[in-house]
From TrEMBL:
It holds the Pfam family HTH_3. SMART domains: HTH_XRE (SM00530). This is Helix-turn-helix domain-containing protein. InterPro entries: Cro/C1-type_HTH, Lambda_DNA-bd_dom_sf. It comes from Jiella pacifica. Signal peptide: none annotated. Residues 19-73 form the HTH cro/C1-type domain. The lineage of its organism: Bacteria, Pseudomonadati, Pseudomonadota, Alphaproteobacteria, Hyphomicrobiales. GO terms for molecular function: DNA binding.
Length: 141
């Protein structure tokens, strides 16, 4: 019987998604990150997917290039503790990273952080919640 491919470790997948998130937030291509690290863009892709594990010294180099502390890559990482987390927490964290990795998510995030007035920011949030509620209401009908 053939053994199926081993799934990436959830921590490796999370760290890779954080690399992708930070890289896209900086507007950096996989190729540019690879050049800065002395590796191919294909290797960057494998790191970002979690299919290749990032070693400690490489992670330190990535943190220097992306100008974040190493701890950034482990923020909201799935717990390895025996206590199970609710699906909401796990999917919530992944959902945010996935959303911010899209062109629309990145554009929305960049535009939102440029709004200086806190009252205007709150009104934008209220508007988006209202629109999302309208979409939910329309789907229920």
């Amino acid at each position: 019987m053939l053994e199926s491919k081993k799934k990436p470790n959830p921590i490796d997948t999370h760290v890779g998604s954080r690399v992708r998130l930070r890289r896209t937030m900086l507007g950096m291509s996989q190729e540019k990150l690879g050049e800065a690290l002395g590796i191919t863009f294909q290797q960057v892709q494998k790191y970002e997917k979690g299919s290749n594990r990032i070693g400690a010294s490489r992670l330190q180099h990535i943190s220097d290039v992306l100008t974040v502390p190493v701890s950034y890559f482990f923020e909201d990482a799935p717990s390895s503790a025996a206590a199970p987390r609710s699906g909401m927490e796990e999917s919530g964290s992944d959902y945010v990273v996935d959303f911010l990795s899209t062109a629309e998510g990145l554009q929305l995030n960049r535009a939102f952080v440029r709004i200086a007035d806190p009252k205007v920011r709150k009104r934008v949030i209220d508007l988006v919640r209202s629109l999302a509620g309208s979409a939910d209401d329309a789907q229920k009908s």
